[in-house]
DNA sequence: TCACGGATTCTTACGCCGTAAGTGTGACGG
DNA sequence: CCGTCACACTTACGGCGTAAGAATCCGTGA
């Protein structure tokens, strides 16, 4: 909104633009994130943004990468060795969910756009190291990491999507509780008794099931008993 | 494209419109699904569609409901009693994945729009019945069904999204295999050795892990040994 | 000192979108 | 036979992403 004469610099950065886009999407929703409006927020015309971003799609990709980049460093802040692969996966899942919830605007994007950046590659490499050290075959480790990531994003997105609107909207608890109890006895009972269920607890239970399932199907003990690193590297 | 004079009926139906929209989205992608183009495919102006659909968002919701409606009836075609809750969940997961893969156009929508229709409610009620009969607490059964649905959609969406474009695009196998092997030893090895990995096998492994995890965390035996229905109902 | 060239920004414009509002036309019940 | 109503069309508005080009500022070498 600052008054600048033509040609005067606004001092923009790709980082600033992504920050503003993230804030706008979180505040007003994805549909409100338009190039014109984003430019207006930065005191600049829409076309100016194209000097920092090749297209709007690229900008959206940048948003997803940004959110993942904020989530990943936390995932392995617990230690250096491979103390407990399950705890590592759990920490990763919790960190990713927390970051996604803080940026509900990009949640629909994250579900459809895989983010590939050096930061995510580093994190995947570390995760593979921990899982293979615990006895996972490499292929199973890749599948486990991929499945967990996908699951966390999707579960969190569903959680956030259910949050908007009042509880009487179709599909929400109060609406389900008002269904025909003769036709849907279990559904209505669940909606009534579980109305106050904690989203975090649901998420925890679901990720625990998935992580536990990894251990069982890969034939790996629940805890890696060897505390030290393996002999090579 | 048929020549009709003004006011002459085209004989449209909401069903026809949804069918055409689904076909168009699958053929040309979601971005190509516009009201004008959809109308053109049906030999009608765009505004005419608004006599059958209140808005484009409602049309998209209809597409998701349609896809889920096609997937669900298959889920319980195996029997009447509750022979094996794990087999039931597996059949549901496989049926849903198959239907979603047949309609890649709506996959991004399914990830963001929960479909609530009588058909889905019936399916959920049946699923809850099977799980509680197998020993699941009601709350755990709800979480399990919800988690599985969300996971199947997300995993399939990721699978389909990775399919488009050549294998050398960022994030794809060939691209990963070309990374710095010194920095990403496990990642590059996985990309090279697992290049021919089967998507269906990955999906099967992941859903098996999740379903197995449900059994473990809910304290339910892997197979419900009682073949007959319970005494009530 | 000053011209110059690249970086940055603005202006204009095009074709597309979803859809509000109003107009015409055919089919059908009285 | 005629109203009436469902169906289809026309027109129009505001907004979108972005291509093309003009204007301005600033660092640099002559």
Automatic annotation (TrEMBL), chains A, B:
Keyword Thylakoid in annotation: no
- One of its Pfam families is TetR_N
State any GO BP term from the record.
response to antibiotic
Q: Specify the DNA-binding region ranges.
A: 34-53
Q: Which residues form a coiled coil?
A: none
Q: Provide the alphabetized UniProt keywords.
A: DNA-binding, Repressor, Transcription, Transcription regulation
- The name on file for this protein is HTH tetR-type domain-containing protein
Per its UniProt record, what SUPFAM superfamilies does this chain match?
Answer: Homeodomain-like, Tetracyclin repressor-like, C-terminal domain
A GO MF label: DNA-binding transcription factor activity
Report the InterPro entries cross-referenced here: Homeodomain-like_sf, HTH-type_TetR-like_transc_reg, HTH_TetR, Repressor_TetR_C, Tet_transcr_reg_TetR, Tet_transcr_reg_TetR-rel_C_sf
Q: Which residues form the HTH tetR-type domain?
A: 11-71
Give the originating organism: Streptomyces cinnamoneus (Streptoverticillium cinnamoneum)
UniProt keyword Repressor, yes or no: yes
């Amino acid at each position: 909104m600052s008054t600048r004469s033509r040609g005067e610099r606004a001092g923009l950065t790709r980082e600033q633009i992504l920050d503003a886009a993230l804030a706008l999407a979180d505040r007003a929703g994805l549909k409100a994130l338009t190039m014109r409006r984003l430019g207006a927020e930065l005191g600049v015309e829409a076309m100016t943004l194209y000097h920092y971003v090749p297209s709007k799609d690229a900008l959206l990709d940048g948003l997803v990468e940004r959110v993942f980049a904020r989530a990943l460093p936390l995932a392995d802040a617990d230690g250096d060795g491979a103390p407990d692969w399950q705890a590592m996966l759990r920490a990763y899942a919790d960190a990713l969910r927390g970051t996604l919830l803080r940026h509900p605007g990009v949640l629909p994007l994250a579900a459809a756009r895989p983010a590939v950046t050096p930061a995510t590659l580093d994190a995947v490499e570390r995760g593979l190291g921990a899982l293979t050290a615990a006895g996972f075959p490499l292929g199973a480790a890749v599948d486990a990491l991929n499945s967990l990531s996908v699951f966390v994003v999707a579960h969190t997105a569903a959680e956030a999507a259910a949050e908007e609107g009042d509880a009487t909207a179709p599909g929400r608890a109060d609406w389900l509780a008002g269904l025909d109890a003769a036709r849907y006895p279990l559904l209505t009972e669940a909606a009534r008794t579980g109305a106050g269920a904690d989203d975090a607890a649901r998420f925890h239970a679901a990720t625990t099931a998935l992580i536990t399932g990894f251990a069982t199907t890969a034939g790996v003990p629940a805890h890696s008993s060897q505390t030290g690193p393996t002999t090579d590297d």
